[in-house]
Amino acid sequence: MSPQDIETLFERFEAANPAPQSELAYTNPYTLLVAVVLSAQATDKGVNKATKALFEKVATPQEMLDLGEDALMDHIKTIGLYPTKGRNIMALSRLLVERFGGQVPQTREALMGLPGVGRKTANVVLSVAFGQEALAVDTHILRVSRRLGLSGATTPDGVEADLMKVIPKRFLRDAHHWLILHGRYTCVARKPKCQSCPVYDLCASTEKILLP
To answer: Which of 26, 92, 168, 179 could form a disulfide with 32 if both were Cys (CB 3.0 to 4.6 A apart)?
Structure first.
């Protein structure tokens, strides 16, 4: 995809959704971090359902520690892999209290030093909570980026590196949201909804459904 086409692509995404938001429910950087850890191999809808009551009780790492592991597990038991995720949340909450004064750090290195926090989770927190130019690549973004021709890489890290190079700086803060929403609702894995795609004419994917 040419630089001009990329510019046009994101101009259209911006025009359709000027202020995209995460579909995960959260109240502050800490609850966002918890929600993103829980969202691995789970839907945002499922996570939001589980955290609604939890976040009414917990808003800080210390409050999570005070709640206790058993009570946390009871709140999140509907989410896949919840025992491991729950243990990681308790462990990262303890580290946040002990090492960071109860605050969520604002560097990728520090975030990735927390239990259960990988590069994708760190990038979501940096972007959504702190407005940094970070781009988390999930399965939706990997698929959309390859289909549109934004990246030819086959790994999340490779796609992230490509996107950071080709996306105009002014769009970087919101690019994650636009691409993930496009992949979640329009450029779906099976039978992409090409008839309603706002960037159909820019897409050269071999999976594109030809329209009359």
So the answer is: 26
